[in-house]
Design the sequence.
């Protein structure tokens, strides 16, 4: 609901109550969900479906024999047929994906209440005070159960199990702002000062047990579990409140819509930092010059409508780390045997290393821009150049493995991000038809200046084939790490002339980057990156009488994907289609090596063979609608009636061979595809009604 009240004071003797306005917004949402494991090459339904041989039977060939040997084999709930069972010694943790999806699993649920209350008092004509309170009350959790089941010799459960978890949190934010504005002649001044405070608190409770009395989905709860105390689990904790507190001020000046200036300063405090570093100050300033309003530009106003130069500089902060990194907390559950005969006693120990000097991460950004508008702004163009340096990056400080505890967090990194942003728009009309076209592009250059450790590099994500990503001074963060390749050995003469003693014809020729005559770990280098150079988008639209059309395209260019969806540890595995073009003899292929799993040459080590071009262009949204003439709809008491059909993710143009080039993984896993769930195509038919 959205409600606004206006109280007008008609008494001249009390004009300090010139105007008082208050309002509120309240919203409620409920969500239920069922999830599966994605972006994992091991064990999940998607990874199993991708990796297992497509010739395997969905259902058991001999159900009676199967059920006699494995009474808890999973059955299809739709027809009662038992699913086929794969051999664990062949497929490891992989299982029949349909059987896995037929298990009950977990059901997630959430209830969210969001509200905002505000009041504004006009103290004088140009002076206002506004106060607001926002709240977010959330309840969420999951309930699940599993019968006894047998999926494979490596994936089975001999008992039924039930589990449940409940969470709740309350986030509130209070803001108080006093603002003043004044116009005198060609001068306009606006100023404000304010205060903001935010708190986030909550708690969790979870439990589980075994041995349900009946394997019935309607009786799958703790009350029907008969497991003894040794099988009962319970946990719970209260979130320590996370708090933010801010003071801020801003002043703006505008002279005749020609010269513009704005300055802002904030003082932010976070409970994530210790007493000596709670607060940090973040200033910013911007200037603008609308040169088309100058007298010397009067002669070009017919074709150059808008011309504005902009420049800005500012600092902002980041406090997104866990709590109490500045001090040492105690961790329970570190039990130990004590006395004779060694009774297990409850124990606790310090939980990781502390860093009392940890402080706000700071980013300083400079931006210079130009806005142009032609022919009454029918054609507009904007360009921005920016450079952002982040210092004191909040990252883990590497510690030796023998320290026996988790790494402390510190302000150890320096990173640069710079680039360009472009925006171009054009609108025109042909009779009753009105058209609009727009395009935007962003170029990003990312560089890790300083990682903060002694050697200047750190390896991160890994796979059976080796290290996948690395951070290193002077490179993008992160980048794909491995060996570069230079085709395949085509015959024994090439093998004998090379420096890889274990190679055979059809094996991969790796590049000896340091020219020492040996292919070793020192030859590894940057072989790609998951951060795009360019992010682009453009839209097309038109209206003609009651008809309207809109299409939006989105894409990236200059980006790589590390495709590790292929398993390298199994013999009986579904192979990607490109293996049809593998090396089978001299000059048959110069990229895909011969078919071999146990290559002494290690053909499938981490190299650029796994890296693909991840650029794509996607028709993200398209919509066609028709609005009925109002003289027809008013007869049925409808002021507006629009019928539309829409599509989402309708078309994708890419050379990537995986499910989807739009990889959702981030952080140090940016651009790694372990089996991401692809974007769904969605088609919608709808009606908009206004009464």
Sequence:
């Amino acid at each position: 609901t959205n409600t606004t009240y206006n109280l007008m004071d008609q008494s001249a003797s009390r004009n300090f109550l010139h105007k008082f306005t208050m309002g509120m917004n309240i919203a409620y949402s409920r969500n239920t969900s069922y999830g599966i494991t994605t972006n994992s090459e091991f064990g999940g339904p998607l990874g199993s479906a991708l990796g297992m041989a497509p010739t395997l039977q969905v259902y058991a060939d001999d159900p009676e024999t199967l059920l006699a040997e494995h009474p808890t084999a999973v059955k299809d709930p739709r027809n009662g047929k038992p699913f086929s069972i794969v051999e664990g010694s062949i497929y490891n943790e992989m299982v029949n994906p349909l059987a896995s999806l037929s298990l009950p699993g977990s059901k997630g649920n959430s209830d969210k209440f969001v509200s905002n209350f505000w009041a504004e008092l006009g103290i004088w004509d140009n002076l206002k005070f506004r106060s607001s309170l926002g709240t977010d009350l959330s309840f969420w959790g999951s309930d699940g159960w599993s019968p006894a089941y047998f999926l494979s010799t490596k994936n089975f459960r001999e008992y039924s199990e039930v589990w449940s978890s409940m969470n709740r949190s309350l986030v509130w934010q209070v803001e108080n702002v006093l603002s003043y504005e004044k116009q005198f002649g060609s001068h306009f001044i606006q100023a404000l000062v304010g205060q903001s405070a935010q708190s986030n608190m909550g708690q969790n409770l979870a439990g589980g047990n075994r041995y349900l009395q009946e394997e019935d989905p309607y009786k799958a709860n703790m009350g029907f579990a008969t497991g003894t105390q040794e099988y009962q689990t319970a946990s719970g904790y209260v979130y320590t409140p996370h708090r933010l507190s801010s003071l801020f001020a801003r002043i703006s000046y505008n002279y005749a819509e020609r010269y513009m200036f704005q300055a802002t300063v904030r003082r932010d405090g976070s409970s994530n930092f210790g007493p000596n570093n709670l607060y940090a100050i973040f200033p910013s300033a911007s200037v603008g010059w609308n040169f088309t309003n100058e007298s010397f530009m009067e002669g070009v106003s017919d074709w150059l409508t808008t011309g504005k130069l902009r420049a800005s500089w500012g600092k902002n902060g980041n406090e997104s780390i866990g709590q109490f990194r500045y001090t040492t907390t105690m961790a329970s559950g570190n039990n130990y045997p004590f006395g004779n005969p060694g009774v297990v006693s409850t124990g606790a120990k310090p939980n990781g290393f502390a860093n009392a000097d940890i402080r706000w991460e700071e980013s300083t950004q400079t931006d210079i821009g130009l806005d142009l508008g032609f022919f009454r702004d029918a054609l507009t163009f904007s360009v921005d150049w920016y450079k952002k340096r982040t210092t004191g990056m909040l990252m883990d400080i590497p510690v030796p493995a023998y320290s026996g505890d988790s790494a402390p967090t510190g302000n150890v990194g320096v990173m640069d991000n710079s680039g360009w942003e472009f925006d171009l728009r054009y609108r025109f009309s042909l009779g009753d038809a009105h058209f609009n076209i727009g395009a935007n592009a962003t170029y990003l250059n990312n560089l890790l200046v300083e990682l903060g450790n002694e050697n200047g590099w750190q390896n991160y994500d890994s796979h059976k084939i080796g290290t996948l990503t690395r951070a290193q001074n002077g490179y993008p963060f992160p980048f794909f790490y491995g060996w570069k390749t230079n085709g395949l050995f085509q015959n024994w003469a090439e093998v004998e002339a090379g420096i890889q003693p274990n190679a055979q014809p059809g094996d991969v020729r790796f590049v000896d980057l340091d020219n020492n005559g040996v292919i070793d770990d020192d030859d590894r280098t940057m072989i790609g990156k998951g951060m795009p150079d360019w992010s682009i988008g453009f839209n097309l639209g038109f209206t003609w009488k009651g008809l309207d059309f809109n299409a939006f395209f989105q894409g990236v260019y200059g980006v790589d994907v590390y495709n590790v969806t292929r398993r390298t540890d199994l013999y009986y595995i579904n192979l990607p289609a490109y293996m049809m073009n593998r090396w089978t003899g001299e000059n048959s292929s110069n990229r895909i090596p011969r078919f071999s799993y146990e290559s002494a040459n290690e053909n499938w080590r981490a190299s650029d063979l796994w890296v693909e071009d991840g650029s794509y262009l996607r028709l993200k949204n398209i919509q066609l609608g028709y609005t009925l003439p109002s003289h027809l709809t008013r007869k049925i008491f409808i002021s507006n009636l629009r019928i539309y059909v829409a599509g989402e993710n309708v078309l994708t143009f890419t050379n990537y061979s995986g499910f989807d080039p739009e990889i959702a993984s981030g952080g140090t896993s940016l651009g790694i595809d372990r089996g991401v769930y692809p974007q769904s195509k969605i088609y919608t038919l709808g009606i908009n009604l206004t009464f």
Notes: Residues 45-51 form the longest helix (7 residues). The helical segments are 45-51, 63-69, 88-91, 97-102, 492-497, 630-633. The two ends are 17 Å apart (CA to CA). The chain has six helices and 36 strands.
